[in-house]
Amino acid sequence: MTHWWEVEPVRFECQKGCIKCCAKPGWVYFDKEDVEKAASFLDLRPGYFKKKFQLTPVDPMHWEMGVTENEPCPFLGQEGCKIHPVKPKQCRAFPFWEENLRTRDSWNKVSEDCPGIGEGPGLSAKLVQQNKDSIWP
Ligand code: SF4
Ligand code: SF4
Fold first, then answer.
1. What is the pLDDT of residues 50-96, one digit of tens each?
2. Cβ 28 vs Cβ 90: under 8 Å
């Protein structure tokens, strides 16, 4: 099956100073590597990192952290993500999530909240695929 983003141009460039996707309520997912990298970045042990930031196990290798309007992501600071160099793959791959890329309409819908969509150079289908595939599951 050919995906729409293989035949239509996809442009995206994250906008400096924007934190809209981080400020939205939802779930932040971490795999084992994400936990280890973020914990190390903060000079914490992985077990303590999971406890401190209330990561809930999904399965033995994955965890989730709920964020709401009242309780936003604990890593979101005034200048953006405080663990930016090691942020989870899910965050790194946004907006190239499976559900966002499903149809042109779903992509257009995401663009209403993501000012980076439609900006910057056109991206190759290979790059879109790589981003999409970088996230668990
Ligand atoms: S909403 Fe879009 S432009 Fe804004 S920070 Fe997130 S990915 Fe970047
Ligand atoms: S971990 Fe960083 S990039 Fe991910 S939602 Fe939190 S602040 Fe945003």
1. 999 999 999 999 999 999 999 999 999 988 999 999 999 999 999 99
2. yes
Nearest residue (by CA) to ligand 1, atom 2, is 114
Instruction: Please write the tens of the pLDDT for every residue from 91-127.
Output: 999 999 999 999 999 999 999 999 999 999 999 999 9
Residue 12 lies in a domain: no
Name the residue with tokens 């890329």.
101
Does 4 reside within a domain?
no
Spacing, Cα 121 to ligand 1 middle (Å): 15
Residue pair 51/12 in contact (Cβ under 8 Å)? The answer is: no
Domain-embedded: residue 102: yes
DSSP state of 84: G
